[in-house]
Design a protein that fits this description.
Elements: E1 2-7, H1 11-23, E2 35-40, H2 47-51, H3 60-73, E3 77-79, H4 89-93, E4 99-100, H5 103-114, E5 118-122, H6 125-130, H7 132-138, E6 143-145, H8 149-163, H9 170-182, E7 187-190, H10 193-198, E8 207-208, H11 209-221
Parallel strand pairs: 1-2, 1-3, 3-4, 5-6, 5-7, 7-8
Helix pairs in contact: 1-11, 5-7, 5-11
């Protein structure tokens, strides 16, 4: 089975996802790694801008094109390492593309297994506005805590700095997380793949949705 990856949202997150795919596989020879097709389509319009009504340019046509391209090229299953793009997952899933992994569902199921009932969510404004991550967690009776409006605005600047390839202060990410923990969160989700990039060398015990997607992709691809 060949895994297809709709990437470019952003580029560093896509590269990190591939690194995680490799690191999580315990192989004796290179031939044992799963086959992967990556389409880094950075031209996909801004998801948050569309979801929050700041842009009328829908990302859906570009996402559809990327998925079709990967399926035509031989991908049996698709992973999309961008959480905000999951706003469009139902539209993509209704096009008979076969397996498209649901990053939100995988993460919610994982958290349910830990026993946590209240988690903090660090994500884009598009993800918070669309509430699709909240809904996935609620199906497992997990309460979601969000940053304050001021922290969320600062977090968006932080995320877009990473998208632009700029270096960011890891301590700021810990600060956003600490604020949610002080509100009563039992754990904090890195609910934007740019935040996974920021935290890749961190020793903090985050729930990293990118890790969870990578493991789910490997499990599915080896069936």
């Amino acid at each position: 089975m060949t895994l297809g990856v709709v990437g470019g949202m952003g580029a560093q997150a896509t590269a990190l996802f591939y690194e995680k795919l490799i690191a999580l596989q315990n192989v004796e020879t290179e031939q044992e790694y799963i086959d992967v097709l990556i389409y880094s389509k950075s031209s996909i319009p801004d998801r948050t801008a569309y979801i929050t009504g700041k842009s009328g340019e829908s990302p859906l046509p570009a996402l559809l094109h990327a998925v079709k391209t990967l399926k035509t090229a031989g991908a049996s299953c698709i992973a999309i390492p961008c959480i905000t793009s999951h706003f469009f997952l139902d539209d993509l899933g209704n096009r008979d593309f076969g397996c498209i992994l649901n990053m939100l569902e995988e993460t919610a199921r994982h958290i349910s297994g830990t026993g946590y009932k209240k988690v903090g969510l660090l994500a884009t404004m598009g993800t918070l506005h669309g509430r699709f991550f909240h809904d996935a967690l609620a199906r497992y009776n997990i309460e979601t805590l969000e940053p304050t409006p001021a922290d969320q605005a600062a977090l968006m600047e932080y995320i877009y700095a990473i998208k632009k390839g700029r270096s960011v202060d890891l301590a700021r990410l810990h600060g956003f997380s600490g604020a949610l923990l002080s509100q009563g969160a039992e754990a904090v989700i890195l609910g934007c793949t740019e935040l996974s990039v920021a935290a890749k060398d961190s020793s903090h015990d985050y729930i990293d949705a990118l890790d969870i997607l990578a493991q789910a992709a490997i499990t599915k691809s080896k069936k």
